[in-house]
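Lecture 7 notes: from sequence to structure.

We start with a single chain of 251 residues. Read the sequence below before looking at the structure.
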Amino acid sequence: MAALPQSKGSVLHQGEPDRPVLKLYGATPVSFHTEYRYHDRASKAKYVWEKYQSVLRGARILDVGADECHLKQHLDGEASYWGIGLGGSPDQEVDLEQGPLPFPDGAFDCVLCLDVLEHLEAIHFVFDELCRVAKRHVIISLPNPWKELWSAMRCKVRPADRPTKFYGLPLERPDDRHRWFFNCDEARRFIEYRADKCGMRVLQIDVEGESGNHWWKRWRRRWAVRWLRSDLPADVLFAGTLWAVLEKSDG
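Now the structure, written as tokens:
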């Protein structure tokens, strides 16, 4: 994976050939990692538990945009779970676009918001609310929409009834869609900036991506940037989901 602009002290965890690797940002070594790979919302819940159980064990957990509350089945017996959002089967229906989260400051040990913020017009406000109601940790994931666009651009024949994912113009109004178009580096800078404003420090940010051990993959990424006549890092076209763990700063 070609290098993104990295924070001081960043490290790269090298995976096995042809397996995803993590691009890590921050001064600490890898703290949150799993070899488990997810493929849908249900398996993503297992991925979250396997990767972040060190902060989820015994914690009071708020899952923002919980959908079917898949994570609940993986938690240990000492943890408590509350899922909110619209759609699916949350414990409490909450419209995230309408005012503050209905909880006091520091009500939950850990707040999760996974692939949700990009759907909200009030993304900045809701991010701050996640930090407000968290006593210890916030875990966030964001997609890389640029990857989806690049995939669409490379598609030689695209069915007329399949508009560009999340951003195209479907024939009928969709129930939901993304509100923001950003790349993984913009997502990282957004999280770092707003975390600092909210009195949180970044423990780890990692970005899913493909292994760069094969020459043809490196060549493909270089070719993509040249074809676009751009000086952008190639990762903005190929990186996957970004994951971030924030911790409440002392004092």
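The first helix runs from residue 41 to 56. Keep this in mind for problem set 3.
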